[in-house]
Amino acid sequence: MRTDAFGTGALRWWRRLAGAAVVALAALAFAALARGEDGTDRDAGFWALVVLACTYAGVPLSRALSGTARGARLLGRHALAGAGLGAVAAVVLDTAFSSEDVGSLLVLLVPLFALCGAVVGAGTAVLALLVPARVAAAVALAGVLATAALAWLVFRPPAPYDLVAVDATQEVAAAGGTTGLAERVVRAVEGDAAGGDWRTDLRTDLRTAPAWDVLAEQVTAGLGQSRAHFSSTPTEDLPTSRATGQAVRLITVRVREQDAACVVVHAAATDVLDGTCEDLDLVR
């Protein structure tokens, strides 16, 4: 049976997978604890998933490159493999997300990703060597579950409500805090402010997705550097109220680190409730 620094026979694979599994568990914890505008931070989870994908891709690469190396030579080979995978990931992501406005960022991304890949590659090898042989298979299987959980965190369906969030600045407090912000949102949605120039005669249903790109300035006027964030749910994905059986648009209005309100938008009227929209009794 073949033997290398990670063991003999199938153990070679189990310990490599176990090392990747430890990275998977750490990535899951990072993604679950990172907080975004509303709930877990999907962006943090996405980058954790990228690191994890490269880590698992490095498992067969580790088997191919390890040979009979031990100690520093072994870690060096894993660092080199990790750097290569990081560079490939940089090219793929730059190609997938590049835009005409920003252009290519390969000059920055390749060195950064290569460095991170080298650290993760060598670190994963160390973790794999530290995993006891008798629990390697169990740890490897736990890594598969952690990877599935991380993928769910990143790609799960979005919450069925809109979000308006601002920092708790002095200007926000002077404007009435959460209550004042919710009133602004109501006026914007109903089209009473600014002459309703964003509405047309054909738009009589208030539940139609708000044009936040137009309304943002109206809602945040005079609030200074409050780092306003807006998100919207497509009209076809609106949740249904259990009480009325009708679709409603829910807009969570949040002052960060303080409180929140929920603007409930019906076809022809709006209501403002205390707390986030997550607390409402919905069919979906």
Distinctive features:
284 residues; alpha+beta; single chain
Could you outline the blueprint of secondary structure elements for this entry?
Blueprint: E1 3-4, E2 7-8, H1 11-33, H2 42-66, H3 71-97, H4 106-130, H5 136-155, E3 162-166, H6 170-174, H7 177-190, H8 212-220, E4 229-231, E5 249-255, E6 260-265, E7 270-274
Parallel strand pairs: 3-5
Antiparallel strand pairs: 1-2, 3-4, 5-6, 6-7
Helix pairs in contact: 1-2, 1-4, 1-5, 2-3, 2-4, 2-5, 3-4, 7-8
Give a brief rundown of this model.
By secondary structure, this protein is an alpha+beta fold.
Tally of alpha and pi helices: 8
Q: Mean of the pLDDT scores? A: 85
The helix/strand order is EEHHHHHEHHHEEEE
**What is the end-to-end distance?**
55 Å
Shape: elongated
Strand content: 5-15%
How many strands in all?
Answer: 7
Q: Tell me the strand order in the biggest sheet.
A: 4-3-5-6-7
Radius of gyration: 25 Å
Helical content (DSSP H or I, runs of 4+): 40-55%
Please mark out the parts with pLDDT under 50 across 5 or more consecutive residues, or reply none. Answer: 192-203
- Based on secondary structure, the structural category is alpha+beta
Largest sheet: 5 strands, mixed
